[in-house]
Amino acid sequence: MTAPAHGDGTPEPFADTWVVMPTYDEAENLEAIAGAVLENLPGCTLLVVDDNSPDGTGQIADRLAAGTGRVRVLHRAGKQGLGKAYIAGFRCALGEGARRVVQMDADWSHDPKYLPALVDALAQNDLVIGSRYVAGGGVRNWGTTRRVVSLGGSLFARTVLRLSPHDLTGGFKAWRRATLSALPWQHLHSGGYVFQIETTFLASRAGATIAEVPIVFVDRRLGASKMSRRIIFEALAVVLRLRWDELRGRLPRNG
Q1: Whole domain around residue 93: which residue ranges?
Q2: Beta strands 173-176 and 100-103, pairing class
Q3: CA 157 to CA 101: how far, in whole Å?
Q4: Are 97 and 177 in contact (CB under 8 A)?
Q5: Containing H/E element for 139?
Q6: Which CATH number covers residue 172?
Q7: Which pTM value belongs to this model?
Q8: Domain assignment of residue 207, yes or no
């Protein structure tokens, strides 16, 4: 794939970067956030991974792709979980030669204005996390219960898995190609939001350098939240299983 270039032939600054954005019923959000992603990362490619959204999100993505070579669309047959959507997107981006891969939500909870800071931090790190729980970060429009669940989940995972990052449940991340491609995709336990904890844990145990960039997380502007009690219990179970596997020397490895 030829890298996008300025009129003078020089490459755009983020021409080697792909942004992977899973969608399910995000018709109200997709067009605006896609435009903001492309504006904030000149030259990047946005890959929309749509799980056959009944609200027509996939068709909107196709229209955006037809209008610019910087948007790609990966259609999946149905809703199979956030983790599996990300894996499909990562494989596609890596297969197309991406050197840097960003993952983010389509609901504006991950503001595209933070994208340059996340990608720039990859110059010194293998994985960069957009963090709500470091100085300068935070959340908006959340009730007390959700704040406690999110912060408590990160603290629980951080303690049990002996990890240094403060925000382990967020999904706004930037990866170097080598780190992302080395993860043992075929062995991952999780298909939901705990996917975020598991991938950070495995990258850390593989020796990746991990940094956190502060972000302010704003609850979705439009549409319904996809968080559920089942997702919370899945996260607790997978964290304990990962620690148990490590104690038994059975952590999965690529290949």
Answers
A1: 17-247
A2: antiparallel
A3: 24
A4: no
A5: strand 138-140
A6: 3.90.550.10
A7: 0.89
A8: yes
